[in-house]
Amino acid sequence: MNETIKQITQDFAKVYGRPPRWIVSAPGRDNIIGEHTDYNDGFVMPMAIERYAIMAADFSRDSSMALSIRDTRSNETAKIEASKRVEKGPPKWSNYIRGVIAGFQDRGVKIPGLDVILSSTVPLGGGLSSSAALEVATATLLEVVTGSQLNPVEKALLCQKAEHEFAGMPCGIMDQFISVMGKESHLLLLDCRSRKSELVPMTDPEVRVLIINSNVKHELSGSEYPTRRKQCETAAKALGVRSLRDATAEQLEREKGKMDEVVYRRARHVIGEIERTIHAAEGIRASNWPTVGQLMYASHESLRDDYEVSCKELDAIVDIAGNIGVKGGVWGCRMTGGGFGGCAVALVKTAEVDKIMQKIGADYKKKTGIEAVMFVSRPAAGAMVIKG
Q1: Which of 341, 331, 248, 340 is nearest to 297 (CA)?
Q2: 209 and 193, same structural domain?
Q3: Distance CA 344, CA 342 (A)
Q4: What is the DSSP secondary structure assignment for residue 257, as one 8-state letter?
């Protein structure tokens, strides 16, 4: 973080000829367990990771209500006119920002002209919520610039709405909530129906979270995500419940004949995953890592077979981790994020991290020909104002 802040300060001065007035950050996230349950009113258990979207900004030196946002990763600049309600526009990544600005405008907040530098260390396409980090960083910047503070739930929902309306992705609430509300050394058990959250301490120094990027492009621009969501709604309707959160495994088996095989399997994943998430939270509170690990493997199998959102590269990572096993320092491993590529997450013994990373890297390269990128992260803090 400190190096990134130093670099973005230098970049701002280089581009705009002065130091930034404000610097804000918001983290990406890794989901320990609870996948594709958020839009089914279920439970999720993410953590904020030590990878961030960071924005440095100052008032624009001209009199216009325009925002000039320079992205250091793409070397593109977005020009956003805020004298009227902001609409979608190029470049593509700017729509996450545009949606948040529009959300503030809808609340009657006047957005001044700003010069902004954006730098993100959250991997793109890795299923680690680079989009939510960008949205929440934008909202955090606008709060400090305008003095219009939002409560945490309102802030997360504004960012979620931006992703729905400006990026066209009907995501659940998990990504934005953890980016806003993350706390160092804690996971967040989030009830996606009531929006109530509970911090779950994860302070055991003997355990670390290892994130393995398959380097297969995570892309949900097609119909896969909306199709899964529709299938879950179809299952809930067949079961006569408001959402799959209200269904039980026994009820699903009794009513199996009311839905086709694919819809049944989608529902079986969601119902089982909600239960696994609740049990995993209990296991983490008790530092019962063997149980948590087994729940993670069961989650992956369900995502692979019933929800069909894994891929051969993610399956390879989980298989390699399983072969290393507890004796080699791996408690459990699963794909994380929306699927179709991206990252896997593993709970590993701290003392064995280096050996595990070497083994996974070598075996994954041998199986797929692809270099995996790995990093260890502690549960990190949520969005913050660093300067200003």
Answers
A1: 331
A2: no
A3: 7
A4: G
Q: Following DSSP, what letter does each residue of 22-53 receive, concatenated?
A: EEEEEEEEEEEE--S-GGGT-EEEEEEEEEEE
124 plus 37 within the same structural domain: yes
Amino acid, single-letter form, for residue 146: T
Q: Are residues 110 and 21 in the same domain?
A: yes
pLDDT bracket for residue 220 (50, 70, 90): low
- What are the residue numbers of the active site? 175
SS3 336: strand
In 3D space, the residue among 218, 219, 214, 217 whose CA is nearest the CA of residue 365 turns out to be 214
Q: Are residues 125 and 232 in the same domain?
A: no
Backbone angles phi, psi at 363, to 5 degrees: -70, -35
Q: What amino acid is encoded at 171 in this protein?
A: C
Query: 123-161, pLDDT tens digit by residue?
Result: 887 778 899 999 999 999 999 999 999 999 999 999 999
Q: Helices in the chain by DSSP H: which ranges?
A: 2-16, 94-106, 130-146, 152-166, 174-181, 224-239, 249-254, 261-285, 289-305, 312-324, 353-368
Pairing of strands 343-349, 330-336: antiparallel
Report residue 192 as tokens.
Answer: 């996606």
User: Is residue 165 located within the same domain as residue 289?
Assistant: no
B/e letters for 304-341, b = 16+ CB within 10 Å, e = fewer, are: bebbbbbbebbbbbbbbbbebeeeebbbbbbbbbbbbb
Residue-wise DSSP of 191-208:
ETTT--EEEEE---TTEE
For 376, counting Cβ atoms within 10 Å of its Cβ (0-12 exposed, 13-18 middle, 19+ buried), the class is middle
Q: Which domain holds residue 254?
A: 203-377
Give residue-wise pLDDT tens across range 55-91.
Answer: 999 999 987 889 999 999 999 999 999 999 999 999 9
- Token look-up 């729905």 returns 164
Residue 23 bridge partners (DSSP) = 56, 387
Q: How far, in Å, CA of 358 to CA of 361, rounded? A: 5
Q: For residue 118, what is the domain's CATH number?
A: 3.30.230.10
